[in-house]
Amino acid sequence: MYEFNLMSAHSVSIGLSDAEFASRFSGRIMLEFGFRSDTGRVRDINQDAFFVMPDERIFLVADGVGGHNDGELASRTVMADIAEYAKDTPLPEEADDETVKNYFENVIRSVNTHIYDMARKNAPGGMATTLVSLYLKGAKAYAANVGDSRIYQIRDGGITQITEDHTYVNSLVKEGIITKEQGKTHPDRNMITRAIGAEKDVRPDFFIFDIKEGDILLLCTDGLYNEVSDQELCELLSSAVDMRTACSVLIDEANRRGGADNITAVSVRV
Q: Measuring CA to CA, which residue among 149, 78, 148, 79 is closest to residue 119?
């Protein structure tokens, strides 16, 4: 198991040797993956976090919300809790779709309770975090999300957003009140409507989708996709020589355009 970024970092892309980074065999699929997190050009601390577990085929990204260091603590606590749970209670290989769904829903509810209780005791102003999780098994991918961090699938030159943002602006777009383009500049575009630790109970969204050789899966925080368009993400990922380089290119591009927020990317090529 490989873990990373439980401590704040400004610009990091280390953790595995080049050989380990290039490809890692897990189960019946060959995975190539990369990751990088950056504070950006405006923030003083990095409240994003991520965790990579190639042996378990689990990938996680979170974006902390809260004053002072509370968001940072929330995102890193969630990473540590899920990683510990996955290590101590591994998913059986024969698990069907419903078993996988229940597994991740249960662990997400558990970490939500932990963060919610921490906030009540230690952060009266509130602390919370977004979360996206990705689990790969054979020709299927299982994604769960709370908040506005995203998972994308890049295939055959096209890009699809798998997760759905839990934001006020996205609710306006879904209701037809504003367009997606108008949402990009809406004054409340950063208002999330669901987060780990924000309320006593949480309801994650869950997605199951097919994957095939050559697919690229991207987990990222809003600091990336708010600076770099979906089509540009697709082009940069598709043209990268490897996934580690891809993540560095994505974050460098987001910083070049302002780096207004923390930026995190985890990319996996099947």
A: 78
- Kindly report the pTM of this predicted structure: 0.89
Kindly report the backbone phi and psi dihedral angles of residue 167, in degrees, each rounded to the nearest multiple of 5, phi listed first: -135, 160
CA distance 227 to 32: 25
184 residue type, one letter: K
Exposure on the CB side of residue 34, measured as CA atoms within 13 A: 21
- Average pLDDT, rounded, for the chain: 89
The terminus-to-terminus CA distance of the chain in angstroms comes to 19
pLDDT at 256 over 90: yes
Domain ranges of the chain: 11-269
Max distance between CA atoms of the chain, in angstroms, equals: 50
215 burial (CB, 10 Å; 0-12 / 13-18 / 19+) is: middle
For tokens 């997760």, what's the residue? Answer: 163
- In tens, the pLDDT along 195-247 reads 999 999 999 999 999 999 999 999 999 999 999 999 999 999 999 999 999 99
Q: What is the CB neighbour count within 10 angstroms for residue 145?
A: 26
**Which of the four CATH numbers 3.30.565.10, 2.160.20.10, 3.60.40.10, 3.40.50.1400 does domain 11-269 have?**
3.60.40.10
